[in-house]
Amino acid sequence: MSGRYGGGGRRHGGRPDHQGRGRPEEPEIRGRRDDARLREELRRMSGSSYGRYKSLRGDWDFGDFTLSIDRVQSDPFAPPSRISVRVPADVVALPDHAWRSPVRRRATADYLVRRAYRVLKGAKLRIDAGEQEVIERASGQIEQGDLLLRLGIELPGHGRKIDARTAESELCERLPDMVDALRWDELDQDEAVAFADTVEDTVALRAELPALGLVAFVADGSVLPRHSGVSDRPMDDSKVVPFTAPESLRASVKLPHRGEVSGLGIPEGITLIVGGGFHGKSTLLHALERGVYDHIPGDGRELVVTRPDAVKIRAEEGRRVERTDVSAFVRNLPTGADTGDFRSDNASGSTSQAANISESLEAGSTTLLVDEDTTATNLMIRDTRMQALVHGDREPLTPFVDLVRPLHRDHGVSTVLVMGGSGDYFDVADNVVMLDGYRPYDVTERARELSSERTDATYHAPAHRVVDQRSVNANARGRTKLKRRDMDVLTFGETDIDVRHLAQLVDPGQIVGVGLALRLLSEDGLLGDDRSLAEALDALDERLANDGVAALGRGFAGDYALPRRFEIAAALNRLRTLRVRALRRT
Ligand code: ADP
Ligand code: MG
Fold first, then answer.
1. 281 C-alpha vs ligand 2 centroid, how far in Å?
2. Which intervals hold domain MRB1590-like C-terminal (predicted)?
3. Which ligand is closest to the CA of 300, given by its number?
4. Is the model's pLDDT at 54 over the cut of 70?
């Protein structure tokens, strides 16, 4: 497992120095500040009290690079200290093709961070590196050809005394060795180029989807199943049935590096994935969920892509819902609640799923991914016998099966749905793919023969919400508090946000990134000026497009990675303090 440490961090409001006021008794070291001086100072500190490390803060000129000691832990058990390293363009010497385009820049930075991670194995220095996905992260950035790295270090101590010898070997030997290992001349250049080529092909493939009328593409030969429930690495080759598209749904795309690739094209509209239990349906849907991200070479899903705005929809009993319009799905609740303006501190399976759909559309999704394994059955289907027993005004729910066609026809929203347990969706599906022994077959014609007439309901777009900016507050006791617990919880100020069911939040750093994005939305006034949530997300996306992931950080001392707007919105929607000021109906 790489990079799954820390993630939390604190920033003291308004002060440029993340340590707060700094201790008057530990002034920064003045005068010549190069690596030789750093060694001298460390030796001089040997055996002193741990707090003296603080005097090392600031920049150190190592000749080939600059080390900045940004934040020093106050004792050996506190979260690691934070440092950054800037390696100038002429030292790291990346060729233009490795970084001039935004896509290759992101890929090469990611490649370098992974290499740094490997080189630092066993060190007290650590760098946050990705796993199967290539996601822009704060730990490694290329700026005008310079390489900027952000790392953590557990500054070593013997009890509460400074262990200067170990500190010296980490900062003055391992760190320069790591920088050396990242020079272009020292890299496996073929591998580095192939890494960027792979990412560039994936991005090109995803960009082709709209022109081809597709919402997703799965190349022949892709490896979808994962090593295990707790490892996202590919399943061992010997066990895998590689993906092969059925002829009738085959699409081909020419990619910049790999040339022509062929595979399953999932068209816009409604696609049903059927098949017996254990035949690979959920595995395919999981791959589509992840297809909004780029994958590393060898992952098996490098050429599995989905529209970037695809959102996984599921039931999520118990979540909070704040003034969300779920009236297309839910009406006439026994409580008499207005479902056009629905709120609950403890939503049911069906209302939580309805809210998840409305909120995803509000945030701008045009592709929904649904798996029967994680849905509320009563929101998905209602068969004729149940209709005969419980009918008309007694049933508050309009099932998704009656809305999925109007969603596409009237709102341009496509759905890919796994449903092995009911044939109701035969009536509404444009395409039906059956998985049999992990192989996909086009069974659209047979399903059509088994289908019947179905009268659609009408779907109206959910209201846009205007958020009360003050209800989104990252501060606890006067300072920013953002912390993550595993992949489950984001602590945002005084509140815990449950993010465990956000299937497309895939990297620990993204969870912190979501917290930073929420902070930015509220503290920079993006949620103000009567902007709707969707407009605020547009404004945020624009900043991220211009300034990259670093736009989120602003003095934040921990690691973080770039989340999508859909997960940012989803976390906001799960924030228990969230207040919506107004609804705007279109
Ligand atoms: P379903 O949703 O149809 O019940 P799953 O997608 O959960 O089935 O897959 C069942 C099992 O089969 C999982 O353990 C999964 O890892 C494995 N599996 C899925 N696709 C493949 C494949 N192409 N080759 C080998 N094993 C696979
Ligand atoms: Mg399943």
1. 6
2. 481-581
3. 1
4. yes
Q: Is 224 in the pocket of ligand 1 (CB under 6 A)?
A: yes
Q: Is residue 28 part of a domain?
A: no
Q: Return the best residue to mutate from 283, 439, 441 for the ligand 1 pocket (most ligand atoms within 8 A of CB).
A: 283
Could you say which ligand is closest to the alpha carbon of residue 281? 1
* pTM, full prediction: 0.94
> Which ligand 1 atom is nearest residue 439's CA?
23
For the chain, give the mean pLDDT: 94
- Centre of ligand 1 to C-alpha 284, Å, is 8
Instruction: Determine, yes or no, domain membership for 472.
Output: yes
CA of 241 to the centre of ligand 1 (A): 9
Stretch (H or E) spanning 465: strand 464-467
Pocket lining: 301 vs ligand 1, CB cutoff 6 Å: no
Residue 527 and residue 440 share a domain = no
> Does one domain contain both 91 and 146?
yes
In a domain, 528, yes or no: yes
Helix (H, G, I), strand (E, B) or coil at 116: helix
**pLDDT tens track for 84-130:** 999 999 999 999 999 999 999 999 999 999 999 999 999 999 999 99
Distance from C-alpha of 492 to C-alpha of 472, rounded to nearest angstrom: 9
Residue identifier of the C-alpha nearest atom 16 of ligand 1: 225
Those residues whose beta carbon sits under 5 angstroms from the ion ligand 2 are 282, 373
Cα–Cα distance, 581 to 468 (Å, whole number): 5
Q: Please check whether residue 50 lies inside any domain of the structure.
A: yes
Query: Does 499 lie in the same domain as 393?
Result: no
Q: Are residues 183 and 39 in the same domain?
A: yes
Please, which residues have CB within 8 angstroms of residue 568's CB and are 6 or more apart in sequence? 514, 517, 518, 521, 537, 540
Asked if residue 14 has its Cβ within 6 Å of ligand 1, the reply is no
pLDDT average, residue stretch 233-238:
96
Task: Return the residue whose CA atom lies nearest to atom 10 of ligand 1.
Answer: 278
Tell whether 438 and 518 lie within a shared domain. no
Residues 180 and 40 in one domain: yes
Cβ contacts of residue 27 below 8 Å, gap of 6+? 55
Does ligand 1 lie within 6 Å of residue 223's CB atom? no
> Which ligand has an atom closest to residue 278 CA?
1
User: Is pLDDT of 12 > 60?
Assistant: no
- Position in ligand 1 atom list of the atom nearest CA 284: 6
Residue nearest to atom 11 of ligand 1 (CA): 278
Clarify whether residues 60 and 179 are in a common domain.
yes
* Ligand number nearest to the C-alpha of 241: 1
pLDDT for residue 9? 37
pLDDT (0 to 100) of residue 225: 98
Question: Under the phi-then-psi rule, with left for phi > 0, alpha for psi from -120 to 50, and beta for the rest, what region is 336?
Answer: left
In this structure, the answer to whether residues 43 and 183 fall within a common structural domain is: yes
Structure tokens at 463: 């209201």
Domain boundary among 403, 418, 449: 449
**pLDDT (0 to 100) of residue 20:** 44
Residue 229 near ligand 1, beta carbon < 6 Å: no
Average pLDDT (363-386) is 94
On the question of pLDDT at 549 being above 80, the answer is yes
pLDDT of residue 25: 58
pLDDT tens digits for range 495-507: 999 999 999 999 9
- The separation between CA 39 and the C-alpha centre of its own chain, rounded to angstroms, equals 40
One-character DSSP codes across 291-327: TTSEE-TTSS-TTEEE-TTEEEE---TT--EEEE--T
Question: In the listed set 187, 219, 253, which residue is the last one of a domain according to the structure?
Answer: 187
Portion of the chain with pLDDT greater than 70, in percent: 96
Kindly report the number of other CB atoms within 10 A of residue 554's CB atom. 13
Look at residue 553 and tell me whether its pLDDT is greater than 60: yes
Q: Tell me if 300 CB under 6 Å of ligand 1.
A: no
CA distance 399 to 378: 7
Show the domain range for 534: 464-584
